[in-house]
Design brief:
five-stranded mixed β-sheet, 9 strands, single chain
């Protein structure tokens, strides 16, 4: 059988791939990568940077390409066959990774180069790569004895399977639930667009009436606008109890096993906790630094959050005689209060945010800042007909990157939004290999009567993920292991979060916020309302993010061996940050994919950490002009193009001239002003 994944390909051959191709391709690519590693090991020449460290970084290129295609499809367009294959190949990939890290002869060569690093006259990037490769061995078991190495292999194999199962359960829970409504009165309060989408969804399932699901474009409008409190409660409980039903899709035991295995792994490697292991390679460096940062923000945000919550409680009491706000009331009454205070809601804004216009807008922002142009192309193979493809060029008409965009929910696609890379940027043999980057989101789809119109939150999400995309597209490093988003995890959110700022600026909004029916540019009064409402309930939003970060640190910053009840442990972790009454039917940890499936374990704090960076960085743009070419050039040169070649704080200081200041975030959030008042 001809396997397109084993042929030499540049663009991923999505339309030629069958499900059956993946496993044999990965097995064959692992075999080929083993030969490349073995060639490094048996090389009779003395170990050098080029024949050991650089060779190691370039090794396994085909395996990386195939794996990138496979695992993104497992997230963006999966099916039972792909999920079964993921369970089968993940242990093989983990074993291969461990075979490299635990190869004593290979480590001896790496160590030999590392021991003479002061005499090698390396460039900064080469020095960084050498440090990274050495630490990847030393931090992951290369110095262990054979018995402990075997223990490590067993732990890693179990973790690989558990994380996959966790994610599969969350997706299955999301797909399983549907709230079928047959009376139009049950949809009271919903905007017409949301009703149309619910009717269209029901029709697609051969049902009469309306269908509400746990996908964000369906879930969020219902929670925000539906007047029927009992139905909001039903939907919220379903959403917030994924993986928490003591059935075949339950994730409680998976959570406990993952946390305990991570701790065992950290102890085996000589670290106090998993958080100590992770944070050694982060800007924050220690759990103590993270907890101090979170506590400082909590002190600043909690008074504002409590004040905001009291106002919301009073508003709900006055409006509907609600004695105690519950979590299924929050979005509904917050939206009502926001409308009362600012005369602003998503239904007034959505007509100005047609998806195609917003895509065009983010491209125009990138053009004004970085000189990029995006040309939609139709000769690139796609894994689904909804995917859009673009070739990206710089101001000299040189090819920069291939960009894929996938914007709408479907049954085989996990929730949320993310950026991924199908092909990394690097330089080899005199050629600058350009990257292939993808953004995947879950936005409100079009209906028979209206195009896809985005909520303002969806607009900021698109800009956020596009910021990650720019980090990948504008990469300009020699080695793939340091390219693009291969940076410290608490730095990776800076390019994404800073891009959200342009969504609030008149000069940027006028580029793309045009009414979908008449082309009218968004009026000044709406822009002012967007700006004025930007800090609405910011204290509550900050407290919410801090609660997630603290939960993450509780799971990973201590010995979890004695934890037996996921829910009670979570309630304790949320103590001091939760404004609403605890609901015993729900549990966040069992669907907290960021930390139990994704890469944010002991790293969820990085969202707030990066907010400090992005608020301080955007303040620089504001000082000089939001489209100032010199500031944009510095941001591109020192942040977007350098990847992980230099310590992120050094890069940031080169861009900004100083370390970031927490005050910039507090001022932007309105927290300083509120505390003072």
């Amino acid at each position: 059988m001809s396997n397109p994944l084993l042929a030499t390909f540049d663009e991923a051959p999505f339309e030629q791939i069958e499900n059956e191709h993946f496993k044999p391709a990965i097995i064959a690519a692992i075999s080929e990568a083993r030969k490349e590693i073995e060639a490094i090991v048996i090389n009779k020449e003395a170990p050098t940077f080029q024949n050991t460290i650089a060779a190691l970084d370039y090794a396994g290129y085909q395996l990386d390409r195939i794996s990138a295609v496979f695992f993104n499809l497992n997230s963006a367009n999966t099916n039972e066959h792909i999920q079964k294959t993921a369970q089968e190949v993940s242990p093989l990939l983990t074993e291969f990774s461990n075979d490299i890290i635990l190869n004593a002869d290979l480590f001896a060569k790496v160590k030999a180069v590392y021991s003479q690093k002061e005499q090698l006259n390396l460039t900064t990037e080469e020095q960084t790569l050498l440090d990274k490769k050495y630490k990847s061995f030393s931090r992951n078991g290369a110095n262990l004895d054979d018995q402990k190495k075997q223990q490590l292999r067993e732990i890693d194999s179990k973790l690989a399977k558990l994380k996959l199962t966790f994610g599969e359960n969350v997706l299955a829970e999301t797909n399983k639930f549907q709230m079928h409504l047959t009376k139009e009165s049950q949809l009271d309060g919903l905007p017409q667009g949301a009703k149309d989408a619910a009717a269209q969804l029901a029709k697609s399932k051969d049902l009469e009436g309306w269908l509400i699901t746990l996908d964000y474009p369906s879930y969020i409008p219902f929670m925000k606008y539906a007047t029927n409190r009992a139905l909001r409660q039903k939907l919220y409980v379903a959403f917030a109890s994924k993986g928490f039903h003591n059935d075949s899709l339950d994730n409680q035991d998976n959570v406990l096993q993952i946390a305990k295995l991570r701790h065992q792994r950290a102890k085996l490697l000589g670290y106090k906790t998993h958080a100590h292991f992770v944070l050694e390679e982060r800007m924050a460096e220690t759990p103590e630094e993270v907890l101090g940062f979170l506590e400082e923000l909590l002190r600043k945000a909690k008074p504002a959050a409590e004040s905001e919550f009291r106002k919301l409680q009073d508003f709900a009491k006055k409006l509907d005689d609600i004695d105690q706000l519950q979590k299924w009331d929050g979005s509904y009454y917050s939206e009502k209060l926001k409308q009362a205070l600012f005369d602003l809601d998503d239904e007034k804004l959505k007509p100005y945010f047609k998806l195609e216009n917003v895509i065009d807008g983010v491209f125009k922002v990138a053009e004004k800042l970085f000189g990029l142009t995006f040309k939609e192309v139709f000769d690139v193979e796609k894994y689904h007909n909804e995917v859009k493809t673009y070739r990206v060029y710089d101001e000299n008409k040189d090819f920069v990157a291939l960009f894929y965009a996938d914007f709408h929910p479907r049954a085989g696609k996990r929730g949320g939004a993310w950026m991924t890379s199908y092909k990394s940027q690097f330089k080899k043999d005199g050629e600058n290999i350009r990257p292939h980057i993808s953004n995947v989101c879950n936005f409100t789809p079009s209906t028979p009567t209206k195009p896809s119109l985005l909520t303002f939150n969806e607009v900021t999400t698109l800009f956020h993920e596009f910021g990650h995309g720019l980090h990948g597209m504008l990469a300009d490093t020699v080695y793939p292991g340091l390219s693009g988003t291969s940076v410290y995890w608490d730095f990776v959110e800076l390019p994404s979060q800073i891009m959200e700022n342009w969504c609030y600026e008149k000069e940027a909004l006028e580029l793309f916020a045009h009414h979908f029916e008449n082309g009218e540019t968004i009026p000044m009064d709406l822009i002012k309302k967007i700006k004025d409402s930007a800090t609405f309930q910011e204290g509550m939003a900050t407290l919410r993010q801090l609660s997630f970060a603290r939960l993450d640190m509780q799971w990973h910053g201590q010995d979890p061996s004695n934890i037996t009840d996921v829910k009670s442990f979570e309630d304790q972790a949320f103590s001091g940050t939760d404004l609403y009454p605890t609901n015993h039917e729900t549990c966040m940890s069992t669907a907290f994919s960021h930390i139990f499936q994704g890469g944010y374990a002991a790293g969820y704090y990085s969202y707030k950490w990066a907010e400090v960076l992005d608020a301080d960085a955007f303040a620089y743009f504001k000082e000089e002009g939001i489209f100032n070419k010199e500031v944009a050039k510095k941001f591109r040169e020192y942040v977007l193009s350098k990847g992980g070649t230099v310590h992120p704080m050094e890069l940031y200081k080169k861009f900004r001239g100083s370390e970031p200041k927490l005050e910039a975030l507090l001022e932007r959030s309105g927290l300083i002003k509120r505390i003072a008042s």
